[in-house]
Amino acid sequence: MMEADELSDWIGRITSQMLTPASMSAIVERINTTIIDSLPELSSDDEFRRDLDASTRGQVRAFIAAATTEDTAYQPPAEAVALARTVARRGMDVQVLLRVYGSGRTTAISILNEIVQSAPVDPEEKMAALVQLWESAVKWLELSTDVLLSAFTQEREALLRGTSARRAETAHAILAGDSIDTDTASQRLEYSLRRWHTAVVLWSDQDDLRSFTNMEAIAARLTHAIRGSGSLSIPSGARGLWTWISTPAEITRLPELSTQPGVHVALGTCLRGRDGFRQSHNEAIAAQHVANMSRPSIAVTSFADVETAYLLGRDATACRRFIRRTLGGLADNTETAERLRETLRAYLMCGASPARASEELHVHKNTVRYRVEQAFNLINPGRRSDHVAIELALRCLDTFGIDWLLSSTPSD
């Protein structure tokens, strides 16, 4: 039987295996899958899932550090506090956090049990290790829950003390489709709902005050650039901002928009009234989903540019199959295939006109003809006459990127 010091050293060695990149990713994915299964209404919420992933990863690291040291003080990782703030800022119920912690705790303890049971040591030593780990885990998770619920409560109370809370509550009610008088809602928002709106979703890969300030500055620059007559912004979480800009009835062309590293922008189309307020936001959320799927992630995404890719990409596995089946060798990861895809896409979007495509690409029209012929030779023979399917496949691949296509095996 191991002595106490030997047992602690052994626990330290086996738990350190959880910190390898592959093990950490597998553990985080397993815990998060269990959590999302308990919160199906948030399964398609990219911002919540991003904050959840960061929180779970931080919590696993923090627990391993706590389980292998004598320091009993619990300091929540910044990512876990950010998740609590996100839940509060989004107006979610505290039950969301309780489900996160409850489901996560159960799965984490199961994982610890499996790791210890798989170790080649005597059953008595396994049981001693499990007892020590369970005691550490239960104590640590209780402290974790208390501290993070306190962070949630403080954030919620801070929001309730200001007029921003009234605006956020009203905006969430409209987005949820609640029945509310348009003029009353406009007064609460301090923003007219009877105008045309362009919704914007901004989010950051970093959790700090500077990134939030950057997002507010980007929203202000965009409002000025498209000649908006007013705007409304509410925090969507610890690392996100939702904005609506009162815009002209039609925006013919979005301005070039520069962002800070790690900051992303997604825009809906320009729509009118209370329903337009909600629908444009839903479009911006859809554009955000496309940006997060793309490899590499897109900095600025307009729903008008990616609507087709969004609709086809809602089933990512089916979309990949469609692209591979339609494009054949034209979907290869080579410079030649990339150049031919660009030419064929321009050719089809220009109404199969070599002259117009040559102007678009700034090459001779004979070059366009030659590349188009080469491109069709790479496409599966049964699909060569289906120009609609080819153009759709090219749009999706152009939006999501070749790395996204290759991120799953061809058998998917």
From TrEMBL:
* Domain CdaR GGDEF-like: residue ranges: 179-289
Q: Which Pfam families match?
A: GGDEF_2, HTH_30, RsbRD_N
Query: Which InterPro entries does the annotation name?
Result: CdaR-like_regulators, CdaR_GGDEF, PucR_C-HTH_dom, PucR_C-HTH_sf, RsbRD_N_dom
- Residue ranges of the PucR C-terminal helix-turn-helix domain? 340-395
| Database matches in Gene3D superfamilies | PucR C-terminal helix-turn-helix domain (1.10.10.2840)
Q: Per the database record, which ranges form the RsbT co-antagonist protein RsbRD N-terminal domain? A: 26-167
State the superkingdom.
Answer: Bacteria
* Family the UniProt entry places it in: Belongs to the CdaR family.
Listed name of the protein: ABC transporter substrate-binding protein
